[in-house]
Amino acid sequence: MDIHEYQAKVLLRKAGIPVPPGEVAETPAEAEAIAKKLGGTVVVKAQVHAGGRGKAGGVQLAKTAAEARDHTSKILGMEIKGLVVQSVLVTHAEEIATEAYLGVLVDRKLQAPLFMASPAGGIDIEEVARSTPEKLRKLRVDPRYGLLPHQAYWIADFLYDDPDQIKQGAHIAERLWRVFIDAGASMVEINPLITTPSGEVKAIDAKLSVDDNELFRHLEIADMRDTTAEPPAEMLAREANLSYVKLDGTVGCCVNGAGLAMATMDLVSFYGGEPANFLDIGGSSNPDKVVTALEIITADANVKVILFNIFGGITRCDDVAKGIIEAMQRIDIKVPIVIRLTGTNEDAALEILKEAGCAAYTSMDDVVKKAVDLAGAA
Amino acid sequence: MAIFIDENTRLVVQGITGRDGSFHTTQMIDYGTQVVAGVTPGKSGQSFAGPKGEKVPIFNSMDAAVAATSANTSVIYVPPAFAAGAIMEAADAGIRLIVAITEGVPVLDMARVHAFARDKGARVLGPNCPGLISPGKCKVGILPGQIVTQGPVGVISRSGTLTYEAVYHLTNAEIGQTTCVGIGGDPLIGTTFVDCLEAFARDPETKAVVMIGEIGGTDEQEAASYVREHVRLPVVGFIAGQTAPPDRRMGHAGAIISGSAGTAVEKMAAFEAAGIQVAKRPAEIAELVAAELDR
């Protein structure tokens, strides 16, 4: 789960990292009031879960509170990478002498947190790693001991020459590690970490993603979820414990298991169709789950056909077939449904589906071809 | 022969009295797995009733279970908050292979667990995996026993049902398996494709290997390099998620294209460059394996 910049900054500030003062606003009037309170030049920053906010015009400098209000009314409602801006952060504008990068993420290959620092701040760190790897210092942190003081110093020493700035940088690195661990983050970064002309080191932008699996033990962070940033169907799916990702095609997919669900989408595309979604309904034959899945899929107006692809392993196919039929009786569906069931007790399942008048298949290729045909004809 | 588990496997079930733990313990005993003990804190002295009246003793701790039964393998069905502790307890008790079925274990927990298990010399499979099965000998986890059959193919996969799909086609084509290993869909897993390839390459009965990968991470790319340099067996590969959008998690915690890294296209290219036959459809996996075995 991603949190917004203003939320990440609250966590940084609490941990003792210097962050310029600022507050979040949802209306131009609120923004004006915050700008007035802060005094001087402020920055108005769109709060969306997307990069490239500056390029899209979502970050504006305002010399007066009235200007902050005007910028806010333009930025609110703006669409950045398909996401509508619902709030802005109004924050004190800092004078910048240098820009650096500081971040921690979980590295899959190292199976450990990786601390990264670069004196080339303000640009995407992947770009730095590609084009100027000599400007990137990386440190594998042993998760059992955490970031040690000399390691924090070694990181800061790469960023600064001035002894006082190195000290400030090391302190920020240690605090950033605390934020990473205490939030159960999968990634946290300060980009840029600036120095002011008077030599202070400050975080002026921050990004933080939390590991979804950690949310149960960090309820204060789970509460930071911005449900307006999430399509309603995905929210419904999350609440029903279904994995759903909306795509742009016409073939609605309902599959058990994430790997098989991806393979089903790929096969739809292989046969010339376009998948409307990723949806994993899991291993149960519970009709309630199937009903929710069907509601989510049919809420997408692009869907022209619904494709079930179920491999019955431990869950028996006949149970799944009964669950699907019960679900279909409980909800009115206007598009054709094709079903493929294979595995344990598949013959019994096919009988049940045929009796109910459903188009049933045992081959994944056959059912996907049929679904693509129906989507094309509709 | 088989890899990791066989008729000598002596299994402890951690979380044997839970809903999933008890259901799958029955299935494993039914398949012929030697389930020698269960662990649920506070239930020492009780026993678990198997499908044919077998009595599996329950212990409070892994230490007690291993001391009393000489168990060498464990399988974990405890909830996510307790999974890390359960794995480390098993490693501390001297278990050599720890199969973690639990989905939803915090990633930072697993970073600590993998470091701990390595120090203890224990192999962790998973978490968030379906386990493994050596047809006709032993099954540990949740893989359905009725879809596999004994034969010459080793199967390694990051997925559950997609593995069943592939194995089902193999079995229908009368191509059996030595061992099918589900390595798990999480970002930090204990046993990788490379670990399994190494084991299959040493197994005299394995004549071909199937690798089923998906988007996210670089495990498949590393497996491809390993195949090119060390594996003489024919290898058939499949990658799920060609139509997955970037930066979206596709069900599995580890199935995510980060920026431009971890795409299906990049993985398929790595497979092809290593001489691995890449199936375009799940059903094609069995066709390619059949062709390789006929050579």
General description of the model:
The complex is a heterodimer of chains A (378) and B (295). Chain A is of the alpha+beta class and 378 residues long. Chain A contains 13 helices and 19 strands. Chain A starts with a strand and ends with a helix. By secondary structure, chain B is α/β, with parallel strands linked by helices. Chain B folds into two domains: 10-125, Rossmann fold, CATH 3.40.50; 144-294, Succinyl-CoA synthetase domains (Rossmann fold), CATH 3.40.50. In chain B, 36% of the residues lie in helices and 23% in strands. Chain B is built from nine helices and 14 strands. In chain B, helix 7 (219-230) links the parallel strand 12 (208-214) and strand 13 (235-240). In chain B, helix 3 (80-92) runs parallel beside helix 4 and helix 7 (219-230) runs parallel beside helix 8. The model of chain B has no long low-confidence stretch (mean pLDDT 95).
Give the helices and strands, then pairings.
The complex is a heterodimer of chains A (378) and B (295).
Chain A: E1 2-3, H1 5-14, E2 22-25, H2 28-38, E3 42-46, E4 59-62, H3 65-75, E5 79-80, E6 83-84, E7 88-92, E8 98-107, E9 112-118, H4 125-131, E10 137-140, H5 149-159, H6 163-183, E11 185-195, E12 201-203, E13 206-210, H7 219-222, H8 232-239, E14 243-246, E15 251-255, H9 258-270, E16 277-280, H10 287-298, E17 305-312, H11 317-330, E18 337-343, H12 346-355, E19 359-361, H13 364-377
Parallel strand pairs in A: 15-17, 17-18, 18-19
Antiparallel strand pairs in A: 1-13, 2-7, 3-4, 3-7, 5-6, 8-9, 8-11, 9-10, 11-12, 11-13, 14-16
Helix pairs in contact in A: 2-3, 5-6, 8-10, 10-11, 11-12
Chain B: E1 10-14, H1 19-31, E2 34-39, E3 47-49, E4 55-59, H2 62-69, E5 73-76, H3 80-92, E6 97-100, H4 107-120, E7 123-125, E8 131-134, E9 138-141, E10 150-157, H5 161-172, E11 177-182, H6 193-202, E12 208-214, H7 219-230, E13 235-240, H8 264-273, E14 277-278, H9 282-294
Parallel strand pairs in B: 1-2, 1-5, 2-4, 5-6, 6-7, 10-11, 10-12, 12-13, 13-14
Antiparallel strand pairs in B: 3-4, 8-9, 8-11
Helix pairs in contact in B: 3-4, 5-9, 6-7, 7-8
